[in-house]
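A quick word before the example. In earlier lectures we treated sequence and structure as two separate objects. From today on, think of them as two lines of the same record. Here is Stealth protein CR1, conserved region 1 written that way.
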Amino acid sequence: MQNSTKFENPDAIDAVITWVDGQDPKHSEKLNRYLTSIGRRPPSAHSTRFNEAGEFIYCIASILRFAPWIRKIFIVTDEQTPDFMSLIEKSSFANRVLIIDHKVIFKGYESNLPTFNSLSIESLLWRIPDLSERYIYLNDDYLFIRPVKAESFFIDNKIVVRGKWETQQSERWYNSLYHLVKKEKNRVKNRIAQALSAKITGYSKKYFRVPHNPHPQFKSLQSDFFSNNEDLLTSNIKYPLRSEEQYVPTALTNHLAFKNKRAIIDNRYKTIRLKLNKLTYRHLKIKLFFADRDKNTAFTCLQSLDMANDKVKQETLHWLERRIGSLESVMGEISNNY
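And the structure line, produced from the sequence above:
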């Protein structure tokens, strides 16, 4: 198994983002070929999970503007390149924003490709060449909307986690009864996957639940764990689409960090989660109003922007432009300051 735990600068912090353009014909062909082979389209293959509606460029711009201490930004994708890379490659940021293909991190496990499963991909992010020991993982719909410090994610060789301890689902008799009555045993839920991650690391009674957040990670915790438990790695990356049998790799790292006394809980910074396909224009404006004024709201998660009505979509993009700025303007400002 590839093991890449060495890094040049122990103080470096990288960002890793998984990205896909679901409207790319080549990607659509791969996905449709797989769906045809299984004869159905499960909820985990809904188009909104793969579509991108202009928000990703603001994700990159937000990191450059509000977390300038990030050393490198790695974009992990499947034979795709965001359009804005042509702009970056002509700038001084060419060595800071890099594309990593699935084939790189799946080296030795190519039989599991193609994959359309973020949990499978997240299981192998620690194999990115030149990845720093400390890194922050984000989905492509996640953005920073305020300046944040490195200490907001790592303090004294510990990760800063946001969330709370909860009782394992299996320990709740009413939860088991509810699922029995509702016949939802096979429904894929993030909470259940996080709870499974805790069980793997020895937490049988409780688990630390993290809502939508940036995820600070230690590469060595992951590489060391999987070097000793390769069966748990191979079992998690074999699913082309999300499965209820999978655990959450970021949650696994969190629990390993707790077990090694390398985690600190700090819930001061918050995320505003926008389910844009379900928001009215008025409701969106209210949410954005409070996000602008609450200094502890440092992040936003934009869900299903591709399915939002035109008015909501345009207001969201206008807000991102005001809040973050265009990638070109952000790069220009940063370059002028040095």
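Notice the following. DSSP finds 13 helices and 13 strands in the chain. We will return to this example when we discuss secondary structure assignment.
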